[in-house]
Amino acid sequence: MRGARRRAAALLTAPALAGASALLWAAAGAEAIQLKDAPGRDLTTGRCIICHSLEYIPSNAPAMNRAGWQKSIQKMKDRFGAPITDEEAKQILDYLDGSYSGKS
Ligand code: HEC
């Protein structure tokens, strides 16, 4: 009985753990970087790390502005199928434009 209850609890917490695991993986990985602290950071981290290192963000920042990030997010969605809603894309764009736009 105790075992069955534990399994049920594990099933209930699985979705939450799946969400956190990307962040844990990032924290443990050699390439792990911490994005700048600003509103939208957690959302950006969670969405962008699904496929590749977050390092892509600061390393592209010098060549980016709002329009550039807009295109980049759109490309991640259209070409690579990034699971980002329009509302999330807006928040991510505000974050990237505010923290990682080096080009005026
Ligand atoms: C569904 C997978 C996926 C997601 C999610 C994703 N990307 Fe990408 N991204 C790729 C692929 C594939 C490439 C190009 C291949 C490579 O070099 O890894 C890439 C490349 C990039 C590049 C390098 C320049 C370029 O356009 O090739 C940047 C910058 C970038 N991604 C930003 C982001 C940001 C910001 C997010 C979060 C909003 C994000 N990506 C989410 C798949 C994804």
Secondary-structure map:
Elements: H1 2-28, H2 41-48, H3 56-60, H4 66-78, H5 86-99
Bound molecules: heme C.
Summarize the structure.
With 104 residues, the chain is mostly helical. It contains five helices and no strands. Bound molecules: heme C.
Which terms summarize this structure?
single chain, binds heme C, 104 residues, mainly alpha, Cytochrome Bc1 Complex, Chain D, domain 2
Describe the structure.
With 104 residues, the chain is an all-alpha fold. It has a single domain (2-99), classed as Cytochrome Bc1 Complex, Chain D, domain 2. The chain has helices at residues 2-28, 41-48, 56-60, 66-78, 86-99. It binds heme C. The site of heme C has 17 residues, from helix 2, helix 3 and helix 4.
At the fold tier of CATH, the topology name is Cytochrome Bc1 Complex, Chain D, domain 2
Net shape: globular
Indicate the low-confidence ranges by residue numbers. none
- The Cα radius of gyration reads 17 Å
- Arithmetic mean of pLDDT: 83
- Write out the CATH superfamily name: Cytochrome c-like domain
Structural class: mainly alpha
Bound molecules: heme C
Q: Report the CATH architecture.
A: Orthogonal Bundle
CATH first level: Mainly Alpha
* Count of separate structural domains: 1
Order of helices and strands: HHHHH
Helical proportion, percent range: 55-70%
